[in-house]
Amino acid sequence: MENSPMEKNCQSCGSGTCSGNCGNCNCPHHKAIPVFTILIAVTFLLGAWDMLSATSVDIIWPVLLGAIGVTKLMKGKCNCC
Questions:
Q1: Which residues, in sequence order, are CB contacts of 48 under 8 Å at separation 6+?
Q2: Phi, psi of 7 (to 5 degrees)
Q3: What is the pTM assigned to this prediction?
Q4: Which end is more exposed in the chain, N or C (fewer Cβ atoms within 10 Å of the end residue's Cβ)?
């Protein structure tokens, strides 16, 4: 069955009735928050292992946290959301 011109096919699952919440979206910003969270964890781990100085850790984690906030603010700009 072919979709009407008014229906938008999901780019990930191919469904014409997908609400965009199929969990298969390939938009980069949907992966950004988990990536930033992992980077924060790695920052603290490297600091705990003395591979990063305490000053570096004190600078890096707030920057990454701010990036998460910006990513959340930009969520509405995606065509699939």
A1: none
A2: -85, 145
A3: 0.65
A4: N
Q: Please give the residue that has the higher pLDDT: either 14 or 24.
A: 24
20 conformational bin, left if phi > 0, alpha if psi -120 to 50, beta if neither: left
Quickly count: other Cβ atoms within 10 Å of residue 58's Cβ: 12
Contact 36, 67 (CB under 8 A): yes
Name the one residue in this structure whose structure tokens are 């946290």. Answer: 65
If you search the block for the tokens 């910003």, which residue do you land on? 29
Structure tokens at 36: 């930033």
The identity of residue 22, as a single letter, is: C
Residue 52 main-chain phi, psi, to 5 deg: -125, 145
